[in-house]
């Protein structure tokens, strides 16, 4: 866990759940289906030596799909997230780099349904500033692409003239507004 630049002072920063989101997008037949999780948590920890770690979790049950009810049940069933057996999707960094140009690169392990894959997410960070109530706030926005099958999300259905209902590649988009913890 190293940093090229360290915009965050040593300490622990927690996600502001109102201003943070974990989303995903996957091609469905002819267009891109997008959704997100409503209950997310993340922690950015900066050690005194400048090493950074990032951890995050989303509750599978908090998926933003609410209707139709049968679709929500299908996505939460063992065919997809199996939320009864695996209530959380988790991420733990192995390396975090913030570059002086405002770009961010995070390497780590994403776990869905006890299937863990190595991921590299890239994006940007916003240096911490003082918020409206005197709190310190910074942000990290990242995206990456993963193979859903490697995460145990193997459900699919063939189309009549070839291909499948869902693409294998899923794009993950993470936006976290961090607040320094006292």
Automatic annotation (TrEMBL):
Residues 12-179 form the Lipid/polyisoprenoid-binding YceI-like domain. SMART domains: YceI (SM00867). PANTHER family: PROTEIN YCEI. Belongs to the UPF0312 family. This is YceI family protein. It comes from Svornostia abyssi.
